[in-house]
Amino acid sequence: MTLDAETWLALSDLVHRYAAGVDDRRFEEVVDLFADDATLTVPDPPRSLCPTVVHLGHAEIRQAIEAVAAAARTQHAIVGEVYAAENNAARGRVSCIAHHWTVRDEKVTDIVWHLRYDDEYIRTDAGWRIARRRLTIDAIETRPVRRLRPDET
Predict the structure, then answer these.
(1) CA dist., res. 90 & res. 84, Å (int)
(2) Which of 9, 41, 136, 153 is exposed most, by the fewest CB atoms within 10 A?
(3) Spatial distance between the Cα atoms of 99 and 107, rounded to a whole number of angstroms
(4) Is 122:128 a contact under the CB 8 Å cutoff?
(5) CA nearest to 56, candidates 129, 152, 5, 132
(6) What is the pLDDT of residue 150?
(7) The CATH number of the domain covering residues in 5-145
(8) Sign of the dihedral through C-alpha 86, 134, 113, 11
(9) Hey, which residues does 107 pair with through a beta bridge?
(10) CB 125 within 8 A of CB 146
(11) How many angstroms separate the Cα of 61 from the Cα of each of 10, 41, 122?
(12) Does the pLDDT at position 152 exceed 90?
C-alpha cells in the first residue's frame, strides 16, 4: 500500500534514530523506540546468520542492544528502506551496513555486517514504535583498519 509522506518520514525517522542511538551508545533511548511488548530476534554469528535468538520486552531488548558496547565504536549506515502501512500498523524492510570496530593487541579490525531488518511497527500515542524486529545478516566481512578515532566521551 502506498504511504503518505508523513507516515513514510515518521517510519524512516524511527529506523534512523535506532541506528544513531546504537552508534552513540544511547541505549535507553533506543529501547524506548520499541513497543512495551516488542520482540527483537537476532542471529548468533558466526554460528547462525539468521534470526534465532528472541528477546522479549524492554529489559531483554536492552540487554541485547547493549552487547554492541563490546566494540570500540560502531557505525550503522541505512542503505535502503521500504515500508507498507495500513491504519496503525506498518511493515518495513531496512537494509544496513553495520561496522563494528574492535581493538585487540593494538590492532583495529572492522567487522562489517551486511544486514537487513524485517520490521513490524505500531502507531502509539507516543508515535510509531517497533513491535517486531528480525535481524538477518547476509554477509560478514573482516577488514584491517589503519586508525580509529579515539572515543571522545
Answers:
(1) 6
(2) 153
(3) 16
(4) yes
(5) 132
(6) 82
(7) 3.10.450.50
(8) positive
(9) 104
(10) no
(11) 22, 9, 17
(12) no
Q: How far apart are CA 128 and CA 56, in angstroms?
A: 18
Residue 47 has φ and ψ, to the nearest 5°, of: -60, -45
Map residue 1 onto helix, strand or coil: coil
Q: What is the DSSP string of 68-98?
A: GGGSSEEEEEEEEEEEEEETTEEEEEEEEEE
pLDDT tens across 122-147, in order?
Answer: 999 999 999 999 999 999 999 999 99
Using CA atoms, how far residue 141 sits from 47, 81, 88, 99, 110, in Å, is: 15, 22, 38, 9, 8
Between CA 134 and CA 136, with CA 135 as vertex, the angle to 5 degrees is 115
Domain edges within the chain: 5-145
- Cα distances from 70 to residues 10, 79, 87, 125, in angstroms, run 30, 24, 39, 34
List the beta strands (DSSP E) in 4-153: 34-44, 48-56, 73-86, 89-104, 107-124, 127-145
Residues 7 and 85 sit within 8 Å (Cβ to Cβ)? yes
